[in-house]
Every structure is written in structure tokens, then in C-alpha cells.
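call fold(seq) -> C-alpha cells
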Amino acid sequence: MHLPRSSSSRKQLPASRWRQRRLAQAPASLTAAQERQLATLQAISALLAGQHAIDALCRGFLRHVMDFSSAVGGTVRILDPHNDTVHIVVHEGISDAMLEEEHCMRNNDCLCGAAVAQGVIQIRDFRKVGAIERFRCQEEGFSAIAVFPIVVRDKPIGSFSLHFVKTTVLGEQQHGWLATLGHSLGIAIDNQRLIAREKEFAVARERSLLAEGLHDSIAQSLNFISLQVQMLDDSVRRGELGEAADVLPLMRMGVEQSYQDVRELLVNFRTRWHGSDLESKLAEVLGKFELQTGIASALQMTGNGAPLAPEQQLQVLFIVQEALSNIRKHAQAGKVQVMVDNGRDFSLQVRDDGEGFAADMRDQKTEVRIGLRIMQERAERLGARFVIDSTPGGGTTISLALPETRRQTA
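ret:
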């Protein structure tokens, strides 16, 4: 139902007026009703301070404010700004027929929509409303209604309504409290939305890390196995069964290493790395690399700084794995050196003596570009500076510099 444009009985009360009004001091001795109201306000404050799903938050809030105001029915409606509609998210004491008609309404329709669109309190005593002005909740048998906007940063995001079967006159102090509670509910809803977006971002980030981990380690192992399969196929075609027999152990080793990589990747994403021995982890990675490729590798560790936090160690490992994967696939290198200086600052270098590349060649090789981007993104997560130094025929060095100010405590 659309809100009539004019009515002599209408009373619009700006929410800001109630919010700015100072609450009267409680008398020395409280009546039972006052004690009940104060207890309800305390319960609402505790509810809004906790973490709840938005529907559970609104349901608990509605029940508390109904008890606070002696209402027998109520709704909480949330604005959908994209479609300019308001939707009932929770309700109490409302018939299914009314719910069916008003579960979604245009913004500014009826009193509940007007409270959202105009950001003002809407109050009606249906006994004083003329015959020309009829409301759906009046047909339900309610004698009065009070609707308060739910506000965040001075912008209404919804409303809550209180329905009465006998006209209950709420005092100005109660109006002020309810208007303030509408702002508090808005802040709580906004906080839950921020938490939900943060969780969504965390899930997306974890998926991205999983994809990068697959590219870093599993793809490297599978590519190694693919090369061995090609060698096996060539040997069989030539009838060189002796060569084929030599290839089979390498394939078996590649499959086993892929299996171990998958298990390690799953463990990394299911649990945090609680170890602090980065040197042994790097040595293990280099050992696998040398065994698979035949490229000589060396690890040099200096410095006596505190260990990096497990999350930062894991990112360093992934960067090294990606650098080694690029070397194996593109560098045609004879040796690789990994150097770590763990002092007050942390630095990492991965250096090879391979073919290298010119700066404009990075855009010509998709796999190289992907690998460099992955390393750059991981360095950004660390808060580290990432540099690539490469020239044709002069090898490649990737450098990572993590300043003391960005180090996390293990």
C-alpha cells in the first residue's frame, strides 16, 4: 500500500532528534516496569556486541525491543538498494497473509518503507486515523504501530516496526532509546557484513594460493613425468627396451614425488606450518630439484636473526619453488644458488647461470610471465621488495628484500 501524501494525524519524528536528546537520569528507586526495560536494554547491548548471523541478530533484537515496548508484533526489514525495495528478514506476531503481501515492498511504500526512504520515525494510532487512510496492519487488528529507521553513517539501511493491539503510549524517552537502538542495530549489521566480506575474501585468497601451489609444485612434477613418458615412448618406438627400462624408475620416482607434493600441499592448506627451520625446508626443496633436473644447486644461509613467522616462511618457500620451476623449464642452466641472509632484515636471492632473457621477452613467454607474476604477488603479500635481474646469456637473479618493519613475530 502506498503511503498517503498528507494526513492531519501523521507525526514524523526525525531520528537525529531522538539520538541527540540526552537520556533522563534514572530515579533512585525504579518501578518494576523500569527495571524490566533497563534489563532489556542491557540484553540488547550484549546481543549487538556479539557476532551473529544477520538474521539471528535481527531476530534477537526484535524480540528484545518488543519486550521493551510491550508490543505484540513486529518486523525487521532490510533495504535492497539495487532494486529500491525493502524485505522482511524476521517477524513476530504477524499473520502469514500479511507476510505474503508485505515480505517485499517498494521503498517508501506504507509506513515501514517510508521510515527507510525518509529516515524518520513513523507513528500511527489507528483509532485516530480517518476512514480515507487504511493500513494493512490495521486490518490485522493492530491498534497502533511505531516504525524506526535502522541507520548506518546517517543512511537508512532498513527499519523495524512495533505493533500494538491496544494503544500503548511510548514516552519520548522510550522513543529516544528505540531510535538509538536502531542506529546500534545498523552498526551491528554493517559489522556482520564486513565480517562476511572478509571471510569471502579469505576464501578467494585461499583458492588463489591453492592454484598457485598447484602451479608451483604439482605442475612442475607432472611436467617432469611428461618428459619421461615421451622418453619412454621414443625408446619403445625404436625398440630400445633397455632404455625404456631405465626410464621406468624415473617415472616411478616422479609419480611418488607428485604424490608427496599433493600431500604436502593439502597439509599446508589444512594446518599452519608450525616449524621454524627454514634452512632444512629449503634444502629439501633444492634436493628434489637437483634430483629431478640434474642441475647442481647450492644453499647459503647467513645471519642470526629471529625466524620468520610460519606464514612468511611458507611464502618464501613458494617463491623459491616457483623460481626453480622457471629455471627448470626455461633457463637451460647448469647450476643454481639460493642465498638467504636472515639478519634484522631478511633477504633472499635465487641465481642461475642460464640463458636469461631481455625485459621485453617476459611478455613473449606466457609461462615465464605467469611465474614472475606469482612471485611478485607473493612478495607483495609479505610486504617485501621483489626485483628481477636478467640479461640474455647472463643468467637470472631474483631478489626478495623484507625489511625489519614488515617481519612478523614467529
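The CA atoms of residues 7 and 133 lie 8 Å apart.
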